[in-house]
């Protein structure tokens, strides 16, 4: 974030750039949005990495997770969203709802803590349709 970018501007930029990079499988673009010591908590971590923990710290641990997510996304993982909410100072929240205008998608809520224009902490919460994808082992097929 440059000296003139407010939290609101950073949140808006991250909201659009993160989704675009994820949908384009642009791992370098995704990593550029995270602080070097960022923390990610997500069910995708053990699904794609075969770990017990769903938490990774820093770019060195985050990069292989993002590479695997990009390579192994199930078809139900699409990108319909309708906006985001913030506390105006640190946290942004947005949803990928299960129901979209064109059918179902995996349902997630993304919570990002942002400081200095970068994601510091990112927690991903999966809804019942996303959990069904886990049950069906769709990330491995």
Walk me through the structure.
The chain contains 5 helices and 8 strands. The chain has 141 residues and is α+β, with helices and mostly antiparallel strands. Helices cover 36% and strands 29% of the residues. The termini are far apart. β5 and β6 (103-104) form a beta hairpin. The mean pLDDT is 91. The strands form 2 sheets. It has a 6-stranded mixed beta sheet. A two-stranded antiparallel ribbon has the order 5-6. It has helices spanning 7-23, 27-31, 44-49, 58-72, 128-135; strands spanning 34-41, 55-57, 84-86, 91-96, 99-100, 103-104, 108-115, 118-126. It has one domain (7-135): Nuclear Transport Factor 2, Chain: A (Roll), CATH 3.10.450.50.
Layout of strands and helices, then pairs:
Blueprint: H1 7-23, H2 27-31, E1 34-41, H3 44-49, E2 55-57, H4 58-72, E3 84-86, E4 91-96, E5 99-100, E6 103-104, E7 108-115, E8 118-126, H5 128-135
Parallel strand pairs: 1-8
Antiparallel strand pairs: 1-2, 3-4, 4-7, 5-6, 7-8
Oligomeric assembly: single chain
CATH class group: Alpha Beta
CATH topology group: Nuclear Transport Factor 2, Chain: A
When the domains are counted, the total is 1
How would you describe the shape?
globular
- What integer value in Å does the Rg equal? 15 Å
Named CATH architecture: Roll
Helix proportion of residues, in percent? 25-40%
User: Which strand order spans the largest sheet, edge to edge or round the barrel?
Assistant: 2-1-8-7-4-3
Q: Kindly state the mean pLDDT as a whole number?
A: 91
């Amino acid at each position: 974030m440059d000296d003139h970018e407010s939290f609101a501007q950073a949140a808006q930029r991250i909201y659009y750039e993160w989704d675009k990079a994820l949908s384009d499988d642009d791992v370098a673009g995704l990593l550029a949005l995270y602080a070097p010591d960022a923390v990610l908590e997500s069910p995708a971590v053990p699904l794609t990495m075969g770990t017990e923990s769903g938490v990774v710290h820093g770019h060195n641990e985050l990069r292989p997770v993002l590479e695997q997510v990009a390579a192994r996304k199930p078809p139900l993982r699409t990108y319909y969203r309708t906006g985001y909410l913030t506390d105006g100072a640190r946290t942004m929240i947005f949803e990928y709802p299960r129901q979209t205008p064109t059918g179902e998608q995996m349902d997630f809520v993304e919570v990002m803590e942002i400081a200095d224009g970068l994601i510091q902490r990112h927690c991903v919460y999966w809804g019942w349709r996303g959990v069904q994808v886990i049950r069906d082992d769709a990330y491995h097929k």
